[in-house]
Amino acid sequence: MTRWLLLLLGGTLLGGIVHLTTMLILPRTATQDAYARLSEVATEVNKMVPVPPATPQRSTIPFTDPAFAVAVCRYDLSAAPIKFTAPVSVAYTSVSFYTRSGVAYYAINDRAAGRRVIELNLMTTQQREDLPEEEDVTAADRLIVESPTAIGLIVLRAFAPEPGMMPMVRNTVAAARCGS
């Protein structure tokens, strides 16, 4: 009886160790992560690019809702901060910021922005500290987001409440800008 309990305990412990190890290591060793998949679409850095709609054969972003138009910007802040501007669509617009490893660190939607255009400056903590003092006074009018890493992704999503409104929503998403 004791032998079976020890074998069961040892098997459970070994299974737990293997499970935890693979769950922690696999995301770091995956070659087709979100950044790599979106790099195929957004080939230029610091430029907003609309993501093609998902088809049954190919989907750049898995499980994408077909009622949303999506655009992506791969950013690199090593040279300078970037300015992001996106017009608000008819129904709903959201912007999410991710690090290179896929960790979301900031998100905003049109209701939180409270304007017809979502405008913000994206910079690293060091670049924020290097801002002149008088720049900080005028920064109250604009939103400054600090990125924890120099490279990452900005994902813009806009909702089309009816299928006939999708071309208009795609035009709105295509008008977004990400750059110096």
Structure description:
With 180 residues, the chain is α+β, with helices and mostly antiparallel strands. It folds into two domains: 1-30; 34-179, Immunoglobulin-like (Sandwich), CATH 2.60.40. The protein has helices spanning 2-29, 34-39, 110-113, 125-129, 133-138, 166-174; strands at 48-50, 68-76, 82-87, 92-99, 104-109, 117-124, 143-147, 151-159, 177-179. A hairpin with a 4-residue loop joins β4 (92-99) and β5 (104-109). The longest helix is centred in the N-terminal third of the chain and has 28 residues, at 2-29. The relative contact order is 0.20. The mean pLDDT is 85.
In short:
The longest helix has 28 residues, at 2-29. The chain has 6 helices and 9 strands; from the N terminus they run ααβββββαβααββαβ. It is 32% helix and 32% strand.
Order of helices and strands: HHEEEEEHEHHEEHE
What composes the largest sheet?
Answer: 5 strands, antiparallel
Q: Which stretches are low in confidence, meaning pLDDT under 50 for 5 or more residues running?
A: none
Give the CATH class of the largest domain.
Mainly Beta
Radius of gyration: 21 Å
If helices are DSSP runs of H or I spanning 4 or more residues, what is the number of helices?
6
Helix content: 25-40%
Structural class determined from secondary elements:
alpha+beta
Distance between the termini: 71 Å
Into which percentage range does the β-strand content fall?
25-35%
Number of strands: 9
> CATH topology of the largest domain, what is it called?
Immunoglobulin-like
- Biggest sheet, strands in spatial order? 1-2-8-4-5
Mean of pLDDT: 85
Number of spatially distinct domains: 2
Q: What CATH architecture of the largest domain would you give?
A: Sandwich
